[in-house]
């Protein structure tokens, strides 16, 4: 299962960056190359989840049990970032596709493919919560990036290109995006709290 998810996420990440290629080129040439890190939202999320899967694959090969130990700074940030952004942009992308369809845009097969793949992103972020080892401080750092990304998206204009029918709803899209950042950060924090409570709960004697 881990290997299957690894290849799905890796190939999806490559496809995602290719999908954003025109916007990356436009941003570099017409706005500022310094804003490039804020452009490819979904593929960056799946890239970080790919790193999480690498950590889990390496851990599965070890004989010593490290699963209850908190992660270091780098792994903790990678995990928290993957959880927050995968859940956030998984829900965001499907919402934008369905919103555009509601306003009259026709759905093509790529829209259905993207909807399924992005729902998978959100689901897998939750599916492996028992294996994450990030600390609450990692959630704070990852959430800070998410809010910074939102700020840059809607002040510098590097948000993911939307269907034409949604451009007149940009303020609502911005509000929805920021709200998803809040919800995703809360989800990541709740998962951390659940793991902490389980770790410190007294075992029942037999």
UniProtKB/TrEMBL annotation:
UniProt entry tagged with the keyword Chloroplast: no
Transmembrane segments: 42-58, 78-100, 112-132, 139-163, 175-194
Keyword entries, A-Z: Membrane, Transmembrane, Transmembrane helix
Domain of life of the native organism: Bacteria
Name of the protein this chain belongs to: DUF1405 domain-containing protein
């Amino acid at each position: 299962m881990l290997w299957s998810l690894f290849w799905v996420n890796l190939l999806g990440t490559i496809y995602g960056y290719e999908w954003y290629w025109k916007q990356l080129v436009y941003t570099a040439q017409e706005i500022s190359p310094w804003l490039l890190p804020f452009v490819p939202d979904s593929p960056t999320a799946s890239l970080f989840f790919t790193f999480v899967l690498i950590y889990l694959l390496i851990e599965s090969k070890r004989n010593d049990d490290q699963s209850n130990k908190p992660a270091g700074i780098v792994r903790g940030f990678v995990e928290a970032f993957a959880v927050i952004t995968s859940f956030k942009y998984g829900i965001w992308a499907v919402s934008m596709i369905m919103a555009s369809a509601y306003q009259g845009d026709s759905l093509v097969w790529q829209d259905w493919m993207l909807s399924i793949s992005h729902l998978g992103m959100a689901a897998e972020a939750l599916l492996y919560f028992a294996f994450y080892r990030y600390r609450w401080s990692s959630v704070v750092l990852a959430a800070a990036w998410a809010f910074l990304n939102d700020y840059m998206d809607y002040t510098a204009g590097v948000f993911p290109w939307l269907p034409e029918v949604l451009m007149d709803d940009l303020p609502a899209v911005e509000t929805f995006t920021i709200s998803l950042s809040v919800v995703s950060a809360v989800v990541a924090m709740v998962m951390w709290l659940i793991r902490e409570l389980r770790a410190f709960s007294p075992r029942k004697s037999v």
